[in-house]
Amino acid sequence: LLNISGFLIHYRGILQHYEYILKLIAQELVNSVKRSVSVDWTKRENARAQIRVKVKRILRKYGYPPDMQARATELVLEQATVLCKEWAT
User: Fold this and answer.
1) C-alpha distances in angstroms, 80 versus 14, 20, 42, 50, 67?
2) What is the pLDDT of residues 10-30, one digit of tens each?
3) 47, 65 Cβ separation under 8 angstroms
4) Global pTM?
5) Comparing C-alpha atoms, which of 67, 69, 35, 63 is closest to residue 50?
6) C-alpha dihedral, 55 to 79 to 25 to 29, nearest 10°
7) Which of 6, 21, 56, 89 sits 20 to 30 Å CA-CA off 47?
């Protein structure tokens, strides 16, 4: 007989763990990208490449699935482009 409530409690714990890990990844990504942006970073491919490398390192550090890293990296760059006016000094 399957213990549904036990399974749900276990599943909820797993979800909470992954939510915590995703928060850590997001915080580290924001801090790293903020430190890396410059006034013209969106126009300089070498600056964008450096940020890509940092993002990929952070994703690997937390065990982010390799097959999803490329899309996640591009998404981080897209979001940073929108927010960069506030970050660039």
Assistant:
1) 29, 22, 9, 13, 22
2) 778 888 888 999 999 999 998
3) no
4) 0.74
5) 35
6) 50
7) 21
